[in-house]
């Protein structure tokens, strides 16, 4: 399989060059709010709201706001937070925010995080505002671009993800992988600037507490999806007395390292793909045939073949097997996408035409909150947000949150074993999930705060939603995280498919809305069945 193809898709995820920190310094060395110096200047600031620019976000001047009709209930702005909470004198970061005013009598603000990590909340809320109209009857609905993301000092690896690399056949030369990772990490450091060592969930959680105060809320009301559940868990540990009504949907792990997370995600995606294939082969006219086992083998051969001999467009652009894997990963997040996925695969198999898959990929990116990173804060145009920002931020945060970091010598010994383990877990998703893992090896260790200290939180009760057929965050993570967080964590068991439950299950939506709006907490261990249309 062409390793250059794999790197073209994921080298943008490499982050954190070894020169970015002082020896022994953690990317998020902020153990607790009580150890911080005086931060009153940040907690007492006033946010200036203005019209949002374009379809992305950002703050326009009032003179520019007349160019396009604007909804006066939707406003964008920014707050300033310290680059380093332990040493505020090191610098500042502007964090972009968006607010949709309540259509009723608000009980305060509801802060949203759409996941990632690396998902932009400003453009995400603009894209998904209809999804939260009901909650908007009781809250000002607010979201933000976390530091390093979108319009908040975006990190980048430049053109590292687009170049053809020299590690084809790297299973015979693991040293080449390490050399490549070092080069890419240095470029990420160069392109990202001073914010890179200070991304990570611990610092973003502290940013959220500044937002809470600036928004005028005594308590943080919060709805976090996927990675946003990790962020919410950290907030509950850091600021337990400030927790209001909190819902964590699509629960992330707090204990497993980057490699184990990627392996579990590869397994989850493979299970979701198997479910899709069974659904397809059970229906007449399935483009994959009627034999599910044969269809799985054919899918693997298709991807392998396109990695070896990519399709080429008239302008020279290539469509590879890893491009197919990327679309599969998006489409499997929602069972509602399965019919369109089947048709798009049919066009590729019958005519060698990938255009339907490419169109589907673009459409799904727009539908996923935080998937589109565009817009402009005053002084930051849409073109200034790097194309690779979401991918670069994802790895920056995941590596900053992971204290485990085998050295280069250990990596050389383990590369081949890792390849075999990931490919045996999923011949289709294993390669794409393995490569990002490698970018954390040999880099400075991240914080151990999440793994060691986020447990037995002393906050008001909050709701965890786990979905049985989730391809990205398996249900067992919901159970494990609930046990770790303690008696304050109340679990809602969603029996359906897809990543997270709020968008795909009427039952989940009703229970989440009921808790956030009216304080109606479901009984711990209660469940939601599969919706009839599924």
Task: Summarize the structure in words.
The protein is an alpha/beta fold. The chain is 40% helix and 12% strand. It has helices at 3-10, 40-43, 121-127, 174-192, 201-214, 227-238, 258-281, 292-308, 321-331, 338-351, 355-367, 389-400, 408-425, 430-438, 449-453, 475-485, 506-518, and strands at 74-82, 92-100, 109-113, 140-144, 220-225, 243-249, 311-312, 318-319, 462-469, 489-497, 526-528. It has a nine-stranded mixed beta sheet, with helices on both faces. It has a two-stranded antiparallel sheet with strand order 7-8. The relative contact order is 0.16.
- The helix/strand class is alpha/beta
Poorly predicted runs = 1-33, 55-69, 163-171, 370-381
Output the radius of gyration. Answer: 22 Å
According to DSSP, the number of beta strands is 11
- Measured as a percent range, the helix fraction is 25-40%
Following the backbone from N to C, one meets helices and strands in this order, namely HHEEEHEHHEHEHHEEHHHHHHHEHEHE
Our count of helices gives: 17
C-alpha termini separation? 36 Å
Short structural description:
With 534 residues, the protein is α/β, with parallel strands linked by helices.
Q: Topology, pairings included?
A:
Elements: H1 3-10, H2 40-43, E1 74-82, E2 92-100, E3 109-113, H3 121-127, E4 140-144, H4 174-192, H5 201-214, E5 220-225, H6 227-238, E6 243-249, H7 258-281, H8 292-308, E7 311-312, E8 318-319, H9 321-331, H10 338-351, H11 355-367, H12 389-400, H13 408-425, H14 430-438, H15 449-453, E9 462-469, H16 475-485, E10 489-497, H17 506-518, E11 526-528
Helix pairs in contact: 1-14, 4-13, 5-6, 7-14, 8-9, 9-11, 10-11, 13-14
